[in-house]
Amino acid sequence: MDRLPEQLDFNLLKVFEAIYTEQSISRAGEVLHVTPSAVSHALKRLRERMGEPLFERRGQQMVPTPSCQRMAPQLLATLAQLRQLLQSWGKFEPVSAEQHFQLGISEALESLLLPQVCDVLQQHAPHCRLTSRRFSRDQMERLLVHRQLDLIIDIQALTPSGIAHHPLMDDQLVVASNDQLEQLNLKQYQQAKHIEVSSRPSGRVLEEYALDKRGLSRQVAVRCQSYQSALALAAQSELLVTLPSSIALAHNCDDMQIWPLPFTTSHISIHLYWHQSRENDPALQWLIGQLNQVFAVETAQATDVSL
User: Fold this and answer.
1) Looking at domain 100-170+269-302, does it have CATH number 3.30.70.120?
2) Could you give the count of Cα atoms lying within 13 Å of 241 in the half-sphere of its Cβ?
3) Which of 48, 73, 78, 170 has a C-alpha 20 to 30 A away from that of 219?
4) Start and end of every HTH lysR-type domain (predicted)?
5) Comparing C-alpha atoms, which of 228, 194, 78, 76 is closest to residue 146?
6) Percentage helix, strand, coil, to 5, in the chain?
7) CA dist list (Å): 115 to 104, 226, 250, 263
């Protein structure tokens, strides 16, 4: 054990972290972007260095041994501190940086945000890259911990203790219809047929929470994957689509009517999420600042939507 510090390398510790968190060789490989056989080989080396099996296979899971379970929290905390030290090493210079930022965001918000973010990067960080992709909310912590995503933008939600977040903007729900509708009251809203939007094949959508709070219901005729498709369909039919005002603003709705929601409801709060271990990462903090500026502009514009 006296030779352990000089024998262990950082990559083996990353493998340990991934297996411990994922409890799976294959998922650890996905996180580390290596093959499962490479993870197994690294685990074998780690076991030899530690003189301890560390994990036991139970079905498809890799379960920590009692000694591993006892020592892992301290080891992972030390690893997080080391990452923070490396992140704060040196100054982030946007003009010359070649950073690749990974942003988790829904398709609906992407159409609102991405053009402005790309414009900011082109002006201030021309050598940086941005990848925007969908994510599953139940995987938020795992994606941020393993840096598969740097940041996530989503509606306000309960988060694990290791996830930091703050509000970016408040939004409100509106209703889009074809340009033939002359008025929209609560009775008309409930009697009409609606389009709901979700990338998931089933499950509750955003406006249903507002309806449930008021004990209201509606008739859903179509469920589709994007607001762009929903608005195109509503423009050519008598169907209604309920959506955030900022998304209505981002799409061309000149040939449609945009109505206030015919019942009172609280605002929608959109938040920015990142892992607390990245608090001292200068590149990430710079990006957070840029997103704050973009959303400040979007919030101001959304309040000017003509209802």
Assistant:
1) no
2) 30
3) 170
4) 8-65
5) 76
6) 45, 20, 30
7) 15, 18, 11, 33
